Amino acid sequence: MEKEKVAKIKELQKEKDVVILAHYYVDGEVQEIADYVGDSFYLSKVATTVPQQTILFAGVNFMGESAKLLNPEKTVLMVDECADCPMAHMISTDRIAEVRAEYDDLAVVCYVNSTAEIKAVSDVCVTSSNAVKVVSNIKEKNIFFVPDNNLGRYVAEKVPDKHFIFHDGFCHVHKSIAAENVKAAKELHPDALVLTHPECTADVIALSDFVGSTSEIIDFATGSDCRKFIICTEMGVFFELQQKNPEKKFYSVGHRQFCPNMKRVTIDKVEDVLTKLGKESLSEKEVELSAEVMEHAAVPLQRMLELAK
Ligand code: 13P
Ligand code: SF4
C-alpha cells in the first residue's frame, strides 16, 4: 500500500481521535492499517478499553452494534454501513417468544452474529471462541441456540448435559464449503492439517484436525510444528496467517471462501470516512440504536464477557 495513504490515514485518526477496529475477514490492506485486528470476541473486549472517542469499525453491522452497546457514550462509525451479515437476520423475536412460552428453565443463547433487536430479547451472547465455555457456565437446562444451526450443534456435542433447541440459521460462506472440497484438498496436500471454523457443517468439522474461531485458527497454526494447513473459513484470515508464518503453507479448499459483505470494507472508504468526519454529516454511517434496545441488548453481551472470563 502507498506510504502516503497510510500516513494520511494515521494523521487523520490522530487529529480526529479515532481508533480503527478490523475483523480478520476484511481485506489485508485494511487489516494492515487497523489499530486492532481480531475475531468477534477480541474486538468486543477491545472496544471496551480504547480511549478514543470515535470507533471506526471495519467489519459488518452486528460488530459495530456490539461496540456501541458496550460503549454507549462513544461514536461508532461503520466503514461501510451496507456491510451486513445475512445470518444476523435469520431469527425473529416472535420465534424467540414462541420457544420461551414452550419451555421452562430456558436460556436463549444468541450468537453475536445477530441484530441488536435479537440480543435485546436474549439471555446471553456467545462468539465462536467462547460459546462452549459460556454455555457450560449457564445454569438453565434448556438452551435455545440462535441463529446459527452449525455452531449450535457443535456446542451441543461439547456440552452434552444440556438440552438444545436449534434454529435453522447459517452462514452462506461456511455452509458452502462441502466435505467433498475438503476431501479433495486433503488428497492434494495429504500432510496438511485441516483447520475449520465452527460455522462449517458437521461433515466438514468431522474431517478437521482443529476447530476454532478465526483467532484460534491463527494461534493454532502459529503454535503448530506442522508446516502445511488447509483452511476452512473465510479467506481474509490468510493475510494474518501468512504474516505470522511466512515459512508455512496455507491452502484453501478450492472453493469460494469469500464473504461479500466483509469485502465491502476497503481502504479508500476508510480514508473517505476519516476525511469527512467533522466536516460533513456521516449520520448514515453512525451506529444508532433506540434507548430501549440499548438498555436490553447490552445485558447479554456483558453477561458473555463475565461468563467467558
Ligand atoms: P469469529 O470472529 O468469532 O471467528 O467469527 C467469524 C465470523 O463469521 C464473523 O462474521
Ligand atoms: Fe456473516 Fe458468514 Fe460473512 Fe461472517 S462470514 S459476516 S457469518 S456471512
Task: Summarize the helices and strands and which ones pair or pack.
Blueprint: H1 3-16, E1 18-23, H2 28-33, E2 36-38, H3 40-47, E3 54-58, H4 61-70, E4 75-78, H5 93-102, E5 106-111, H6 116-120, E6 124-126, H7 131-136, E7 142-146, H8 149-158, E8 163-166, H9 172-175, H10 179-188, E9 193-196, H11 202-206, E10 210-211, H12 214-223, E11 228-232, H13 237-244, E12 249-251, H14 267-276, H15 291-307
Parallel strand pairs: 1-2, 1-3, 3-4, 5-6, 5-7, 7-8, 9-10, 9-11, 11-12
Helix pairs in contact: 1-14, 3-4, 4-15, 12-13
Structural write-up:
With 309 residues, the protein is α/β, with parallel strands linked by helices. 43% of the residues lie in helices and 16% in strands. The protein contains 15 helices and twelve strands. The protein has helices spanning 3-16, 28-33, 40-47, 61-70, 93-102, 116-120, 131-136, 149-158, 172-175, 179-188, 202-206, 214-223, 237-244, 267-276, 291-307; strands spanning 18-23, 36-38, 54-58, 75-78, 106-111, 124-126, 142-146, 163-166, 193-196, 210-211, 228-232, 249-251. The strands form three sheets. Strands 2-1-3-4 form a four-stranded parallel β-sheet. The longest helix is centred in the C-terminal third of the chain and has 17 residues, at 291-307. The chain binds 1,3-dihydroxyacetonephosphate and iron/sulfur cluster.
